[in-house]
What we know:
2 copies of one chain form a homodimer. Chain A is α/β, with parallel strands linked by helices and 279 residues long. Chain A has 10 helices and 13 strands. Chain A has 2 domains: 6-133, Rossmann fold (3-Layer(aba) Sandwich); 136-277, 3-Layer(aba) Sandwich (Cytidine Deaminase, domain 2), CATH 3.40.140.
Amino acid sequence: MIETRGLGILAGGGLFPVKVAESAVRAGRPVHIVAISGEADATIEAFPHTWIKLGEVGRILKTLNKAECRELVIIGSVTRPDLSQVRFDLGGILNLPTILGLTIGGDDSLLSNVIRFFEARGFEVRGAHEVAPELLAGSGPIGRNRPGDQDIADIATGWDVVEALGGLDVGQACVVARSHVLAIEAAEGTDRMLGRCGELRQWGAKSFRRRRGVLVKCPKRGQELRVDMPAIGPRTIELVAAAGLSGVAVEASAVLIAERDRVAALADKLGVFVLGVER
Amino acid sequence: MIETRGLGILAGGGLFPVKVAESAVRAGRPVHIVAISGEADATIEAFPHTWIKLGEVGRILKTLNKAECRELVIIGSVTRPDLSQVRFDLGGILNLPTILGLTIGGDDSLLSNVIRFFEARGFEVRGAHEVAPELLAGSGPIGRNRPGDQDIADIATGWDVVEALGGLDVGQACVVARSHVLAIEAAEGTDRMLGRCGELRQWGAKSFRRRRGVLVKCPKRGQELRVDMPAIGPRTIELVAAAGLSGVAVEASAVLIAERDRVAALADKLGVFVLGVER
């Protein structure tokens, strides 16, 4: 069955909103992008769109209704807002208790609340991967490099680490080098975790510093994939290389890649592997 | 039974070597400190001592034998050495395969090898806490501040995190704030982990930034407590306060405190709690 209903895209920063819009349009669906000012990229203007400010919750709902979009994808990065600086419109003020309630607890409860908020108003919230499955990493290597035996053992250790943390709303990535867990990601984000792995490798003779260790990335168990899908991109590959790691393993069907071709080309150039693994 | 045999102390940096020596001498035991140049503090010279360089493995063994110390405590910090810069003496060269073998795998296997190395040469390796149990945190509060209800819930979550990681040779500390796991320590050390928690709190309105969250610190499960006991000190308290946390919970019978009085005074001054918890 071909989906022909309008698709709303609530767009934060980065390339994913445009990729999702392209995919939907290719499939013949009308789209309307509700773009968050200061976050969404100007390239979204290639599609029907409305710019809104964070806090204009009433306007988001009105815009989606007017564009007849009952299905909604929420995608893209949002800088953690300084709530004291956000001006709420009427819809925002009416929903302030819910919105402020979001700031308590782990990210998962926050994002589940966002979904509940839209669903309570008659929208269906879909994951980017449901609308644009070609954005998923998929199984197998990306680019021409392959993990060695030690890398494969390190990937297995990495899965064990994230698996062990699964019930605790933490552990979306870790770095393992020669069976030694170098870093575990919590609230700091993957980029910063990779930064500190680079620093950890400053000791020892330079000749010892050959490329080794892997970044393992996947959702936390129970992570709300509809609004919080892990992703890697060219920047991830650069940081993995700068940290002196051998490569990246991601969960094949639960990690997005916005720029697959650039990721592959960069991985080849920098000599790191990228591997999609079924869990 | 009072122990009267000589105690050797292989001393790295910090105050613990002297504290262990003081405790042993108070108990009537002769001590000899083998102090690592560039690491051990000059205050160790108050006791019978010999300065050695890292790599002078033969000299360490000879010194301990000459001082008739069959029991050995290995304590204090050692900057991770650049092996290309270490000059090994004959004992070191003969044992080079063992010593280089140490660099593979997690810290636990490294330190277990150190113990095996000395035990194979007839020494008994003792934990600092066995010789000087008063250095243990012990059960209950240190200083006058107490955790609140949210802190107690966060401590429980912190134990869950380190417990979950126990089998993976990682997870000696974490930070939890309002049920949200902010950071998990892997290879970077507690100080750096606390540093990034401070950075994570730079977002949001200043008025929201009241003190909350706890550092939970304990050994990894199976950690070799004889040579790798976790410790906190005044610097930990400063970093906990700087990160905006409410306090610290440590495993009562498995974490050392070198300067208990200074820790208590500083915690009181900075408004953070320090709590020893039985696991």
